[in-house]
Structures are given as C-alpha cells and as structure tokens.
Amino acid sequence: MRTGARCVPINKSGKDMLYYAAVFFVIALVAGVLGFSGIAAGVVEISKILFSVFLVLFLLTLAVGLIPRKRR
Questions:
Q1: How do residues 51-68 score in pLDDT, each as one tens digit?
Q2: 53-to-47, 59, 70 alpha-carbon distances in Å
Q3: How far is 33 from 31, CA to CA, in rounded Å?
Q4: If you ran DSSP here, which 8-state letter would residue 53 be given?
Q5: Cβ–Cβ contacts within 10 Å for residue 69, how many?
Q6: Average confidence score pLDDT of the chain
Q7: Is 21 helix (H, G, I), strand (E, B) or coil?
Q8: Is-contact 53 41, C-beta < 8 A?
Q9: Predicted confidence band of residue 11 (pLDDT cuts 50, 70, 90)
Q10: Is 28 helix (H, G, I), strand (E, B) or coil?
Q11: pTM
C-alpha cells in the first residue's frame, strides 16, 4: 500500500489564468502610478490577453456543461 498519495485537481488552469491576469493588472496599476507608462502599457496588453483567453474558456465550459448527456 502506498502512503502519501495525493489527489491533484485536473482542471486548475482556468483559475491560474484568472490569477495571472489579476496579477498583471495590479502590476500595470503600480507601474502606471509610478510613471512607467511603457511597462504599464505592455503589462495591460498581457492582462487583456489572459483575461480574454480565460473568458473564452469559461464560456466554452459553460456551453458544454449545458448540453444534456445521453444515458445508456
């Protein structure tokens, strides 16, 4: 018998992307306040892309979840 085996969540990537989008957004805010407009603009673009990917994946998952499953 093995000891110390862990169950790892399979679908964790959506939460990770939202987390990174939020982190890049905060970095962009801090850079903007400090006057680093070039860095802030780059970070804002990255956060927009990550948020868009997360939103598309969320909507796809929601649509697939609404499709009824066939029972055998």
A1: 898 899 989 998 888 888
A2: 10, 10, 29
A3: 5
A4: H
A5: 5
A6: 77
A7: helix
A8: no
A9: low
A10: helix
A11: 0.52
Secondary element (H or E) of residue 63: helix 37-66
What six digits make up the tokens of 43? 């970070």
Both structure tokens of 51: 């948020």
Residue with tokens 């956060």: 47
Q: Return the CA Rg of the chain.
A: 19
Percent of the chain predicted with pLDDT > 90: 4
The count of C-alpha atoms lying within 13 angstroms of the C-alpha of 13, restricted to the half-sphere facing its C-beta, is 10
In residues, how long is the chain?
Answer: 72
C-beta separation of 24 from 60 below 8 A: no
Mean pLDDT of 29-51: 81
